[in-house]
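Much of what follows relies on a compact textual record of a protein's fold. A record is reproduced here so that you can trace the correspondence yourselves:
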Amino acid sequence: MRDWNALSDEAFRLAARDFIEAHCPAHLRRGEEHVRWAQSKDWYHAMAAHGWLAPGWPVEHGGMALKPAKHLIYLEEWARAGISRVMEQGVLNVGPVLLAHGTPDQIAHYLPRILSGEDLWCQGFSEPGAGSDLAGLRTEARIEGDTFVINGHKIWTSGAVDANHIFVLARTDKTVKKQAGISFILVDMNQPGVTVKPIVTVNGDAEFAEVFLDNVRAPVANLVGGLNNGWRVAQSLLGFERVWAGSPHMGRQAMDRMVRVARLAGRDRDPAIVDRIAQLQLDLADNSEMYERLAQEIRAGHSFGFEVSTLKIVATETYARITELTLEIAGEQGGLAGEAPFADGPLVLGKADLLRDYLTARAPMIYGGTVQIHRNILAKRVLGLPA
């Protein structure tokens, strides 16, 4: 297996570009956020076959074991090429969670099936009455012999329409405080009692879905991290998500676009605009340093705490401010798709537009815990303020 970390950053960047050019189909390079499995499975299999699917997994489990700087380049090149997201819950979340909390049998069984695309995962966390207050979930699992019987209703489940497995947070003890009575269970969706109802968004996509679980069964062997210990497992998974959300790669991409817009609009000579761009570039540099430092700690096996909340706030708010200033600089051209004509030339945008970038940048401030929740975490755990 090749040691990607031995390459220089530039050599690795070129290798990533060469791989994308050789194997990623054109229809997945349009910057579309969501595509179905039928459209993306060939690309998924190509990444797996050539060892590019799991950049953060250990080499012995089929990953690339990239160090943070290389991993960031990986993300940047995928974003630069406008590559649509594929079924990623297995690679991004299930794999790392099992490596941290799973049994040897779970690791040996599920990780190869994630890489092969045989198991496609979605996340069964949020519920109609338990989104930001996730610990208030009502889905229940009772034990009958060597089986969990699960009943509940999940919502805003990304990828559920194509998934065949779901990892579920369910209440297994109602006599203790709400965080203490939750378990993390792996569930096969190909069974009676699982109903998936797509949620069609305003742009016509069915990226999200409701998932109804009616007397659904899962072996007790599919319990991850121990009975009633699901909150700790979920927090580690959300930690992985928040570190991902804290990556500066989207902010860097947005910054490159903002600089181009400022030049084409003739605003790159406006001292007030130049000063605001410079401040955002400094904020983005801070974000990059925080991300690399925390990622190094995680790779070294160290636990993470409030630093993840700080990273989430800095990264998502910086990204949002960049898109906001871009829209301000663009003026009336900000809502145009395709080509936006500016005084010094056109900006080719494809199917997207700068307004869509602005709106898209608001989502990371919500998923994985809102920035308001993360400020409350810092206030309580770091500053010692009352809850």
